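Cast an eye over this sequence plus C-alpha coordinates and explain the fold to me:
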Amino acid sequence: MFTGIVEELGTVGGVEHGAESAVLRIEGPLVVSDATRGASIAVNGVCLTVTEHDATGFTVDVMAETLDRSSLGALAPGDRVNLERAMPADGRFGGHVVQGHVDGTATITARTPGDRWETVDFTLPPGLAAYVVEKGSITVDGVSLTVAHVGDDTFGVSLIPTTLELTTLGHKGVGDVVNLEVDVIAKYVERLLTHRQEAVS
Protein backbone atom coordinates (compact mmCIF):
# COMPACT_ATOMS: atom_id res chain seq x y z
CA MET A 1 0.00 0.00 0.00
CA PHE A 2 1.12 3.57 -0.75
CA THR A 3 -0.01 7.07 0.17
CA GLY A 4 0.65 8.98 -3.06
CA ILE A 5 3.53 11.02 -1.66
CA VAL A 6 6.32 10.81 -4.24
CA GLU A 7 9.71 10.20 -2.65
CA GLU A 8 11.95 10.56 -5.65
CA LEU A 9 12.01 11.51 -9.32
CA GLY A 10 13.66 8.54 -10.96
CA THR A 11 14.87 7.97 -14.50
CA VAL A 12 14.20 5.11 -16.88
CA GLY A 13 17.59 3.53 -17.49
CA GLY A 14 16.48 0.87 -19.95
CA VAL A 15 13.49 -0.88 -21.49
CA GLU A 16 13.30 -4.41 -22.89
CA HIS A 17 10.05 -5.12 -24.72
CA GLY A 18 8.74 -8.66 -24.98
CA ALA A 19 5.77 -9.98 -26.95
CA GLU A 20 3.34 -9.22 -24.10
CA SER A 21 5.55 -7.84 -21.36
CA ALA A 22 8.45 -5.51 -20.63
CA VAL A 23 11.41 -5.26 -18.29
CA LEU A 24 12.23 -1.81 -16.94
CA ARG A 25 15.44 -0.61 -15.34
CA ILE A 26 14.74 2.39 -13.12
CA GLU A 27 17.42 4.62 -11.63
CA GLY A 28 16.42 5.78 -8.14
CA PRO A 29 19.06 5.62 -5.40
CA LEU A 30 16.74 6.78 -2.61
CA VAL A 31 14.05 4.15 -3.07
CA VAL A 32 16.61 1.33 -3.34
CA SER A 33 18.49 2.43 -0.22
CA ASP A 34 16.60 -0.21 1.79
CA ALA A 35 15.22 -2.33 -1.06
CA THR A 36 15.09 -6.10 -1.09
CA ARG A 37 14.22 -8.51 -3.89
CA GLY A 38 10.42 -8.75 -3.95
CA ALA A 39 9.87 -5.29 -2.47
CA SER A 40 7.07 -3.12 -3.87
CA ILE A 41 7.84 0.24 -5.46
CA ALA A 42 5.27 2.40 -7.24
CA VAL A 43 6.44 3.69 -10.62
CA ASN A 44 4.16 6.48 -11.88
CA GLY A 45 1.50 5.06 -9.60
CA VAL A 46 1.88 1.41 -10.65
CA CYS A 47 2.84 -1.05 -7.92
CA LEU A 48 5.74 -3.14 -9.26
CA THR A 49 7.93 -5.84 -7.72
CA VAL A 50 11.69 -5.43 -7.54
CA THR A 51 13.42 -8.34 -9.27
CA GLU A 52 16.99 -7.02 -9.06
CA HIS A 53 18.58 -3.96 -7.49
CA ASP A 54 21.89 -2.29 -6.78
CA ALA A 55 23.02 0.95 -5.17
CA THR A 56 21.58 3.16 -7.91
CA GLY A 57 18.46 1.48 -9.22
CA PHE A 58 16.25 -1.54 -9.72
CA THR A 59 14.63 -3.79 -12.32
CA VAL A 60 10.95 -4.74 -12.59
CA ASP A 61 8.82 -6.95 -14.83
CA VAL A 62 5.69 -5.38 -16.33
CA MET A 63 2.98 -7.79 -17.47
CA ALA A 64 0.44 -7.39 -20.29
CA GLU A 65 -2.42 -6.36 -17.97
CA THR A 66 -0.33 -3.51 -16.59
CA LEU A 67 0.82 -2.41 -20.03
CA ASP A 68 -2.80 -2.36 -21.22
CA ARG A 69 -4.11 -0.31 -18.30
CA SER A 70 -1.25 2.12 -17.78
CA SER A 71 1.17 4.38 -19.63
CA LEU A 72 4.24 2.32 -18.69
CA GLY A 73 4.43 0.72 -22.13
CA ALA A 74 5.28 4.10 -23.64
CA LEU A 75 8.26 4.74 -21.36
CA ALA A 76 11.67 5.17 -22.99
CA PRO A 77 15.21 5.52 -21.62
CA GLY A 78 15.70 8.96 -20.11
CA ASP A 79 12.05 9.48 -19.15
CA ARG A 80 11.42 10.71 -15.61
CA VAL A 81 9.13 8.70 -13.33
CA ASN A 82 7.56 9.22 -9.91
CA LEU A 83 8.79 6.72 -7.32
CA GLU A 84 7.36 5.75 -3.93
CA ARG A 85 8.22 2.84 -1.67
CA ALA A 86 5.45 0.86 -0.01
CA MET A 87 4.28 2.47 3.22
CA PRO A 88 5.68 0.88 6.42
CA ALA A 89 3.18 -0.24 9.06
CA ASP A 90 4.28 2.57 11.38
CA GLY A 91 4.37 5.24 8.65
CA ARG A 92 2.29 8.38 8.30
CA PHE A 93 -0.57 8.87 5.85
CA GLY A 94 0.61 11.95 4.03
CA GLY A 95 -1.85 11.48 1.16
CA HIS A 96 -4.62 8.87 0.98
CA VAL A 97 -4.96 5.09 0.59
CA VAL A 98 -3.28 4.22 -2.72
CA GLN A 99 -3.06 0.62 -3.88
CA GLY A 100 -0.85 1.11 -6.90
CA HIS A 101 -3.50 -0.61 -9.04
CA VAL A 102 -4.06 1.75 -11.95
CA ASP A 103 -7.66 2.00 -13.15
CA GLY A 104 -6.93 3.67 -16.48
CA THR A 105 -5.24 6.57 -18.18
CA ALA A 106 -6.13 10.19 -18.89
CA THR A 107 -4.76 12.93 -21.12
CA ILE A 108 -3.76 16.43 -20.04
CA THR A 109 -6.06 18.89 -21.81
CA ALA A 110 -4.95 22.22 -20.33
CA ARG A 111 -2.49 23.87 -17.95
CA THR A 112 -3.37 27.23 -16.38
CA PRO A 113 -0.61 28.93 -14.38
CA GLY A 114 -1.43 30.84 -11.22
CA ASP A 115 0.74 32.95 -8.94
CA ARG A 116 2.91 30.10 -7.62
CA TRP A 117 0.60 27.20 -8.43
CA GLU A 118 -0.98 25.73 -11.54
CA THR A 119 -4.32 24.18 -12.47
CA VAL A 120 -4.11 21.11 -14.69
CA ASP A 121 -7.13 19.62 -16.49
CA PHE A 122 -7.47 16.02 -17.64
CA THR A 123 -9.87 13.85 -19.60
CA LEU A 124 -12.02 11.59 -17.43
CA PRO A 125 -12.70 8.09 -18.79
CA PRO A 126 -16.45 7.26 -18.67
CA GLY A 127 -15.90 4.16 -16.56
CA LEU A 128 -14.19 6.16 -13.82
CA ALA A 129 -16.39 9.27 -13.72
CA ALA A 130 -18.66 7.92 -10.95
CA TYR A 131 -15.71 7.66 -8.54
CA VAL A 132 -14.38 11.21 -8.99
CA VAL A 133 -15.95 13.95 -6.88
CA GLU A 134 -15.04 17.54 -6.15
CA LYS A 135 -12.71 17.77 -3.13
CA GLY A 136 -12.26 14.00 -3.23
CA SER A 137 -8.94 12.20 -3.65
CA ILE A 138 -7.44 10.88 -6.87
CA THR A 139 -4.02 9.52 -7.77
CA VAL A 140 -2.40 10.90 -10.93
CA ASP A 141 0.87 9.24 -11.95
CA GLY A 142 1.24 8.11 -8.36
CA VAL A 143 0.63 11.56 -6.85
CA SER A 144 -2.15 11.93 -4.27
CA LEU A 145 -4.19 14.97 -5.29
CA THR A 146 -7.44 16.70 -4.40
CA VAL A 147 -9.98 17.10 -7.19
CA ALA A 148 -10.52 20.85 -7.69
CA HIS A 149 -13.37 20.54 -10.17
CA VAL A 150 -15.07 17.77 -12.12
CA GLY A 151 -17.36 17.59 -15.14
CA ASP A 152 -18.96 14.75 -17.07
CA ASP A 153 -15.76 13.85 -18.92
CA THR A 154 -13.05 16.07 -17.41
CA PHE A 155 -11.55 16.92 -14.05
CA GLY A 156 -8.92 19.30 -12.76
CA VAL A 157 -6.41 19.58 -9.93
CA SER A 158 -4.36 22.42 -8.50
CA LEU A 159 -0.64 21.79 -8.12
CA ILE A 160 1.40 23.54 -5.45
CA PRO A 161 5.05 24.53 -6.09
CA THR A 162 6.39 21.44 -4.29
CA THR A 163 4.39 19.09 -6.54
CA LEU A 164 5.44 21.02 -9.64
CA GLU A 165 9.08 20.79 -8.62
CA LEU A 166 9.34 17.26 -7.23
CA THR A 167 7.08 15.19 -9.53
CA THR A 168 6.65 14.55 -13.24
CA LEU A 169 3.42 16.58 -13.20
CA GLY A 170 5.48 19.76 -13.22
CA HIS A 171 7.05 18.81 -16.54
CA LYS A 172 4.26 17.20 -18.55
CA GLY A 173 2.38 19.10 -21.22
CA VAL A 174 -0.95 19.13 -23.00
CA GLY A 175 -1.49 15.82 -24.76
CA ASP A 176 0.65 13.79 -22.36
CA VAL A 177 -0.88 10.64 -20.87
CA VAL A 178 -1.03 9.97 -17.12
CA ASN A 179 -2.08 7.03 -14.96
CA LEU A 180 -5.22 7.29 -12.81
CA GLU A 181 -6.24 5.45 -9.68
CA VAL A 182 -9.57 6.45 -8.20
CA ASP A 183 -10.37 6.25 -4.50
CA VAL A 184 -10.70 2.56 -3.62
CA ILE A 185 -13.20 3.36 -0.85
CA ALA A 186 -15.66 4.64 -3.46
CA LYS A 187 -15.32 1.39 -5.41
CA TYR A 188 -15.96 -0.73 -2.34
CA VAL A 189 -19.02 1.33 -1.40
CA GLU A 190 -20.45 0.92 -4.90
CA ARG A 191 -19.84 -2.84 -4.81
CA LEU A 192 -21.51 -3.24 -1.42
CA LEU A 193 -24.54 -1.16 -2.40
CA THR A 194 -24.92 -3.03 -5.69
CA HIS A 195 -24.88 -6.41 -3.95
CA ARG A 196 -27.33 -5.20 -1.32
CA GLN A 197 -29.76 -3.98 -3.99
CA GLU A 198 -29.46 -7.27 -5.87
CA ALA A 199 -30.14 -9.21 -2.68
CA VAL A 200 -33.28 -7.17 -1.95
CA SER A 201 -34.64 -7.53 -5.48
In short: DSSP finds three helices and twelve strands in the chain. The first strand starts at residue 8 and ends at 17. The chain has a mean pLDDT of 94.
